[in-house]
């Protein structure tokens, strides 16, 4: 008889019930005192409305700590939560996928002095699924519903089912954290995790790209500079409208509509309106603005048109390497093979071992002597952590040296010609 697969127990209600939402300074003060008097790590989560709003700010905060319970805080009427941050100095914050929430927490003066990221911990353990619901099920045997993950959290008042969902997101986060720490210690990866947590906690905010419009879906099919100019002007106009009205850009004008306009190159505002991609309410509401953007694009001189790619100081797209630098292309293949071997041995995904951008930068501009110490130094300059360098540097060095010292391959035709020359060359005697 085959063993039955255990069924996860649904987690449907917070243990202490769904708490009221903190919306006043008086209730916030009580919440701060309660959390400060709690013990151990504190589970933290934030809900945003990125699919609905232009801003990526938090519209609900969730906290849970032993001895204090769960607290839901509405940051909109409160805005400055620095007093809460001061009360939690020295406390470890437990988040899942921390890079998603840390920026919006920082906007509210919430900055953890210690961090544990359950997603990162799961990746370092080689877990096949690292989403919160998947980990809660695999590690705790509980089923955590995620049906409200993409709702409009800027809505007020927030429905009670949404609040219950939000409270459950931090219900067992500390318990999950403890299990993952134990597993990390058992496989001697706890120090690796601590390095990653500190890296995430202290990482500087990424600068905004000046050419964000190049991320427009469907742009890869547009090659002419005039088409790219249409994309850029429509994107800039959409961004202006979305920012002014605090609406998600995609709800103002879809990427597909921008690409369709650049492809069709309409002759008039009326022909623009007839494009199927411009049939939506948001697109039609701002039709005058879209047409003005198209006219601006057409008024540009040749020198003002965007190029097919933005000039960069970093490596070029790796697809061009075989033509631009065959040696770098060969190193990239060797590095990927070495990384795949390490991944197979450790069970850690290659992109967790080292980001693809780091690998490409190393292969495009490798150290001169290719020694393990030089590769390690190069990886350090590229931002790799000590644990990553310890398990990757020597493998990369050996792969690069093997490639450098490998004799050039000769074709069968070359070998036959060489043999023919040896047998047909007459002997010269003096």
SSE layout and pairings?
Blueprint: E1 9-11, E2 21-22, H1 25-37, E3 39-48, E4 58-66, E5 69-73, H2 82-87, E6 92-95, H3 98-107, E7 114-117, H4 118-124, H5 132-140, E8 142-144, H6 160-168, H7 173-186, H8 190-202, H9 225-245, H10 249-252, H11 255-264, H12 269-273, H13 281-285, H14 287-298, H15 321-324, H16 326-346, H17 350-353, H18 356-364, H19 372-381, H20 386-405, H21 412-424
Parallel strand pairs: 1-8, 2-5, 3-6, 6-7
Antiparallel strand pairs: 3-4, 4-5
Helix pairs in contact: 4-7, 5-7, 9-11, 9-14, 16-18, 16-20, 19-20
List keywords for this structure.
430 residues, six-stranded mixed beta sheet, 21 helices, disordered C terminus
Question: Would you kindly provide a written description of the structure presented here, covering whatever features stand out?
Answer:
This protein has 430 residues and is an alpha/beta fold. It has 21 helices and 8 strands. The strands form 2 sheets. A 6-stranded mixed sheet has the order 2-5-4-3-6-7, with helices on both faces. Strands 1-8 form a two-stranded parallel sheet. Helix 9 (225-245) packs antiparallel against helix 11 (255-264) and helix 9 (225-245) runs antiparallel to helix 14 (287-298). It starts with 8 loop residues before the first strand and ends in a 6-residue tail after the last helix. Mean pLDDT is 92; it is low at 415-430.
């Amino acid at each position: 008889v085959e063993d039955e697969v255990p069924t996860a127990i649904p987690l449907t209600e917070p243990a202490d019930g769904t708490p009221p939402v903190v919306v006043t300074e008086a209730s916030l003060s009580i919440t701060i005192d309660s959390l400060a008097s709690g013990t151990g790590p504190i589970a933290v989560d934030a809900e945003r409305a990125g699919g609905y709003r232009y801003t990526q700010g938090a519209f609900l905060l969730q906290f849970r700590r032993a001895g204090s319970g769960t607290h839901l805080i509405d940051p909109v009427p409160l805005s400055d939560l620095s007093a809460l941050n001061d009360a939690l100095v020295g406390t470890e914050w437990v988040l899942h996928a921390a890079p998603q929430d840390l920026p919006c927490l920082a906007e509210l003066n919430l900055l953890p002095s210690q961090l544990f990221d359950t997603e990162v911990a799961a990746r370092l353990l080689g877990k096949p699924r690292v989403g919160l619901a998947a980990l809660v099920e695999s590690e705790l045997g509980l089923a955590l519903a995620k049906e409200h993950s993409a709702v409009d959290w800027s809505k007020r008042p927030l429905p009670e089912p949404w609040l219950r969902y939000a409270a459950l997101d931090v219900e067992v986060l500390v318990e999950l954290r403890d299990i993952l720490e134990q597993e990390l210690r058992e496989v001697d990866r706890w120090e690796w995790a601590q390095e990653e947590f500190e890296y995430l906690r202290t990482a500087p905010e990424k600068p905004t790209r000046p050419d964000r419009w190049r991320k427009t879906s469907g742009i890869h099919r547009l090659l002419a500079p005039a088409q790219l100019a249409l994309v850029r002007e429509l994107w800039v106009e959409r961004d202006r409208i979305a920012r002014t009205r605090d609406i998600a850009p995609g709800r103002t004008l879809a990427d597909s509509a921008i690409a369709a306009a650049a492809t069709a190159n309409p002759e008039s505002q009326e022909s623009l309106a007839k494009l199927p991609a411009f049939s939506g309410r948001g697109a039609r509401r701002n039709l005058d603005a879209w047409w003005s953007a198209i006219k601006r694009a057409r008024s540009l001189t040749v020198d003002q048109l965007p190029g097919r790619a933005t000039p960069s100081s970093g490596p070029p797209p790796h697809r061009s390497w075989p033509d631009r630098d065959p040696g770098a292309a060969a190193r990239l293949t060797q590095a990927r093979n070495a990384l795949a071997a390490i991944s197979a041995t450790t069970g850690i995904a290659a992109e967790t071992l080292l980001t693809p951008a780091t690998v490409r930068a190393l292969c495009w501009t490798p150290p001169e002597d290719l020694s393990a110490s030089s590769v390690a130094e190069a990886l350090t300059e590229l931002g790799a952590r000590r644990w990553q360098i310890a398990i990757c540097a020597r493998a990369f060095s050996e792969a690069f040296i093997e490639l450098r010292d490998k004799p050039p391959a000769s074709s069968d035709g070359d070998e036959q010609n060489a043999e023919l020359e040896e047998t047909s060359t007459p002997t010269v005697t003096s």
